[in-house]
Amino acid sequence: MIRVSSKFNQIYHRIFSPLPLPFMIHPKHRIIIMEEEQKLVKEGTNLEGSESETKLELTVDEVVEEYVGSLGFSQMVHVLLVSLAWIFDAQSTLATIFSDAQPPVWRCKTGLCQGNNNNNSTGSVCGLVPGTWEWVGGNTSSIIAEWNLVCDRRFLAAVPASVYFLGSLIGSGVYGHLSDSLLGRKKTVQLSCILTSITAFATSLSPNIWIYAFFRFANGFARSGIGISCLVLTTESVGCKWRGQVGQYGFFFFTIGFLTLPLVAYPTRTCWRNLYKLLSLLPLAYSVLLLPLVSESPRWLLIRGRSKEALQVLDKFARLNGKKKLPDNLSLVNPCGSQNGESDETSPNNNKENLWTTKWAAIRMVTVMLSGFGVGFVYYGVQLNVENLNFNLYVSVAINALMEIPAVVIGTFLLGFTNRRLLLSMSSYIAAVSSILCTFLSHKGSTSKVHNNNSGNWGQLIIEAIGFMGASTAFDILYIYCVELFPTNVRNFAVSMLRQALMLGASVAPLLVVLGRLSPSISFLVFGVLAISSGVLSICLPETRNAPLYETLKQQEEEEKHNWVSHNDCALEMGK
């Protein structure tokens, strides 16, 4: 469907009169109209007396579908380069699984551990005299071993992970604003990667738990711009039917980061500081070498009044896809009101709409955030809780990471023909049922001297992995769902608000993980309850499968009202 100038109106009436001219003309009529116009021009007909050139006005979606291609080679390369940043996001987020883990094995320095009546048969170090025992892996294997975060200091071990997610919560709001306004999607990703690299290296130099917690907070703030901006930057470059699948590709690279983390962590298992030093190198190299090759989002350029640059990006995509150059008379329809490609970034039309003062959008955003809190709590909590499984830590993390792959593949496949709302709720219910089943397979944990993690409970591990796959699918789908629920001028802000809700849930999860060291069944039960709550809340959201991406809140409200009325009219006609 295309919008047309007044000259097209005259031609349309000549050809299709007495049919009424709607505001939008079907694409198949455009060819007839343009052929007629060329004929009239050859005959010397001067439509409207003053215009000598037809102006073709299209939306970004229409240009992508008709001239660029819904998903061509250029967009696949674009998506690949952008999605690589998810690897660093995953590694930065989940590094605490290893750096903050409680060492499983300790031993007496002498034949008799003083202060312990049971001598070497005890499972706890809390009754021992300090200095009479040691961790088998050394005092630098984790922050718990180095700073003695056990017994009455055990809850201090949860502080760094909690403040990390609090940093992500705050950073999501800041990066969301920067990405929608000043910096754009691409520069926000670049800034986030550079700051992630700096703060990760600084974390490795921490002299105590409080400085370590501060740098983890800073690292969480720094990395929070990667995920939200990458997701929006990739989905805004492709056609409607590929939007969900492309969004899932980013989560596949997040899975790669998760899966490669044990490979990075194992060689550094004797010194947690080396882990952070290694992780600081990759995002810096990416932001300098690969990210400059990425194009900015044409949708963002358009709503910022930079339509010429938006057309250049679309033309670049088209040519790399083997398509013809975009027509010279093509211009983009800007719902924000900027015309003729002139920069108008200070125009009030670009910024007057506010998500929180628009009733329908605010209600929708609150519902998404409440659901996101539960999903984030379960998704990150289950990952951090692997140390409370009766199994080898590295094997448990690797299996959980592997379960992300079928979650992404299944999610990508189902997104093509399944309603988002149904898929989100069912994934949440799978996570809930699996978590509740794990409560019956858990046993009371402790800081044990002899703890055989290599021959653990396979049944519990398998059920936990299935639950994690459900939580991972719900996590991925919720991001795609949020992108489709809100228009371009607030989309990045909406995704950042979802990110804040996810991080708020994640910031509480480490406290439950520490509690799970005493009673694993409690942590799994809480995971189950919150997963059910998220699934129920998702039912309140509208379905977005095959819906267009709108540009402004006003446009989306009008179009959704029109579609709702049309749907009801059709239902009434069918009922007659």
From TrEMBL:
Residues 78-546 form the Major facilitator superfamily (MFS) profile domain. The chain crosses the membrane at residues 155-177, 189-215, 249-268, 274-294, 361-381, 393-415, 422-442, 462-481, 493-515, 521-541. GO terms for molecular function: transmembrane transporter activity. It comes from Glycine soja (Wild soybean). PANTHER family: SOLUTE CARRIER FAMILY 22 MEMBER (PTHR24064). Keywords: Membrane, Transmembrane, Transmembrane helix. This is Organic cation/carnitine transporter 1 isoform B. GO terms for cellular component: membrane. It comes from the Eukaryota. Pfam families: Sugar_tr.
